[in-house]
Structure formats: structure tokens, C-alpha cells
Amino acid sequence: MIDLLSIEIPFNPNLVAGSFISISWHGLLSFVGVAVAIWMVSNAAKKENLDPDMVYNTAIFGIIGGIIGARLVHVIDYWGVYASDPTKIFAIWTGGIGLWGGILGGWLGGALYAKYSGASVGKLMDIAAPAMFVAQTIGRVGDVINGEHWSRALDTFWGWYFTHPDSPARIGAERFFGDPERPVHPAIVYEMIWNMIGLYVITKLRGKLTPDGSIWWVYLTWYSIGRFFIQFLRLDDVKFLGLQEAHIIAIIVLSVSLPYILKKVRIKQKKVKL
Questions:
Q1: What is the CA angle 14-167-149, rounded to 5?
Q2: Which of 3, 12, 18, 142 is least surrounded, with the fewest CB atoms within 10 Å of its CB?
Q3: What is the mean pLDDT of residues 186-195?
Q4: What is the model's pTM?
């Protein structure tokens, strides 16, 4: 029985659904998020007097790396689906990406190109960090509309349920709770809120940390901590020791980012005029 105080999500997950082409809200808003991120980075790059062509080229390689990484993480997480027909791995238009792969793959692709072009990798990382939080949050709005990422049941007024027959959330609710309209945690919204708080934090830290690249490491650490704990509310496949794939990646990232911050990152000393 549905709690009358719970939130109904009635949206069709597909903006366009046809025999030859399908466009989901998640796909569209992920594209919008990337476009907004590029716009933010280009504006910030102008203030840092960075070459615009280099910035756009770095963004292109970051996008390519992000797509490859996002698909790779998804395929690893759902290898049972792809093992019988590996050709499906390349059918990315059918859906299936992992955010962690997008973040790390995009970082690797962009950083390698920036290093090759002789640009300041650290500065580019720092101006990309706020844009990443914004892009992720916009993309997550698509997750909300699509009803993606199954979550644990919740019996309070902010629990939500999905009523559109094509919503993947109904499949998860039926599978885990025997009721396709069982209210569950809005785990994606928790992550969006965490990201916006993180955006505020790194915005306040901008220009106050050394060396270049420090803001990026704070971004990675902030997101990893939030994602690790919020992930316990999601019902993704458990890999081992009660941990899901996103938990494991967050631990790996934190094992690198936290030591780096503790060892390298410092608050800039204010110059005293004599």
C-alpha cells in the first residue's frame, strides 16, 4: 500500500522511443551536463589566460575518455549480461554507463592530452572540478526522471515511487519488495545535495590551496566519501564483503586522494606587505 505522503514520479523515461532511435531523459540531460561543463571550463580558462583551443581539445579528449571509462565500468559491473555476447559491449547507444568510469576516464583522457600539449594540468584540473559537480548533478536529474538506480525501501514522507509502466524503478521495487510502487529512498537526490554542498566548498577554497590541482583532489575526495556512504542505500549487485562496485572504486580513489591531500596540499600563505 502506498503512503499518501510519499512522492509520485510519473514520468516516461524515454523522451523519444521508436524502432530506429530512442532518446532517454538521462541521455539528453547527460549531454546537457557535459555542454554546461565545457562552457564553465572555457569561461574559467579565459580568466586564467589559458589557450582556448587547448582547452577545447582537452575537453574533447576528456569526453572520449569519459565515454570509454563509463562504458567499461558498466560492462564490468554487469559482465554476466555481456559475457554471452561480447559484441553488446560496443552497443553503447542501447544504454549502460557508470558514472565513476566517466569521471576517472574523462580525467585520464583530458590530463594525458593536456600533458602532451604542454599545458598546466593542475590548473585545468582545478577549473574542471566545479564543472564536474554541476555536470553530474544535471545528469542525475535524468536518473530521477528515468527511475534508474534501485534503492532501499523508505517509509517516510520523502520516499518516492514510480508510476510510469516503462520506469526501471518499478522493476526493482517488484523484484526486491514485491510491489512495483513501493516507496524507496531518493538516493540519487541525496547524492545531488552532497554534490551541491561540495560545489560550495571547493568554490570557497578556490585560489586558497597549493599546488595547482589541489581543488581537483578535494573534489575527488568529497565525492568519494559521499558516494561511499550513499551507495549503501542503493541495491546494486554486491561484489564482496557487502560492498558494491561503486564502494570499491571509492575506496581505491580515497586511498590515493587522501594521502595526496595530507602530504601535498597546503593553504596558501598570504603575502605580507612590509
A1: 105
A2: 18
A3: 97
A4: 0.90
